[in-house]
Write a structure and sequence with these properties.
Largest sheet: 5 strands, mixed
Strand content: 15-25%
Bound molecules: coenzyme A
CATH class of the largest domain: Alpha Beta
Distance between the termini: 18 Å
CATH superfamily of the largest domain: Thiolase/Chalcone synthase
CATH topology of the largest domain: Peroxisomal Thiolase, Chain A, domain 1
Order of helices and strands: EEHHEHEHEHEHEEEEHEHHHEE
Shape: globular
Strand order of the largest sheet: 1-7-6-4-5
Number of domains: 2
Number of strands: 13
Amino acid sequence: MRSSSIKSTILSMGISVPSKVLTNIELEKIVNTSDSWITERTGIKKRHILKDGELISSHAIKASKEALERAKLSPKEINLIICATLTPDYLMPSLGILIQEGVGAINAGAFDLSATCSGFLYALSIADQFIKNNPNWKILIVGAEALSRKINWEDRSTCVLFGDGAGAVVVGKSSSPDKGIIDFILGSSSDNWSLLTLKGGGSCFAPFDKRLPPEDYFIKMQGREVFKVAVKTMERVALNLLERNGLTTQDLDLLVPHQANLRIIDFLRERLKIPSEKVYVNIQKYGNTSAASIPIALYEAQEEGKLKDGILTLSVAFGGSFTFGGVLMRW
Ligand code: COA
């Protein structure tokens, strides 16, 4: 358990997703799949996908502008931008830099963070450290992904799962020591990384290197194995985080997990013995948007009036590499 009189908190949020929607029925025309298989095995009904030529930076910037407006902050007041992404527009410039340019945050440092689906929670934990040392700082965190550009549209085991989108939050000092980020866990387990990979595009293989099979330029996953590790890991993170803060799952008001698969979320809920009304789910609309999934879920939970003053939330995530994380927060 951590004790500090200064707590950081999420001051405001914004989201943006592409207007183009790809439904399960439309996917039936692209690969050998069915609406009933996707719905039953994943809970996903549709996902938002970038159009040709559309960039994820435009959504990262739009989400950031909304978060800044809601916090009533000028972009010039932002000290740091952390963008969690696996799918930036370019390797250089970073997506963080494009966000800085797009919102006009001329006084901010900006960088990208690569921690797959746990990226947003990693970024939140880093921001928490900065706020404790610099209580007047305002930090913009963005989770943004263009996963449709890294999917093999001939691989039915992955192409039905992912979607594109961006979620942004402004983090600053909490007005009360009783509210804000209580504690977090970050972790990784390198022994399993080969179950979920995206090899092409790094410095090992030059673009279109003939030594690498074409499918390795896209996300490859051994889904069933990943599933098992994901459930166990997220349960362990949730229980550790609660226990070391003298809490139990009964103290939780809302679980806002990474949205990878409804069955993963249901397993987790059952193992933690949390009633379904205390778990936020929006995977049916967006699919798995990786680093964008938790900020989009938090935003929608707030819009639906579920993030009431004083409630205790837990977010847990798990993703490729493998990374995992959890953040416990009082609102
Ligand atoms: N449509 C129809 N059938 C499909 C399919 C699709 N889109 N994808 C796979 N199948 C088939 C498989 O070929 C297999 O057929 P077979 O039994 O004839 O061999 C069958 O469905 C079962 O495949 P399996 O991979 O065991 O299914 P599953 O129940 O494990 O579900 C995932 C697959 C990917 C949905 C699931 O494993 C999953 O969500 N994994 C974790 C994802 C995740 O968390 N990713 C990391 C975090 S970002």
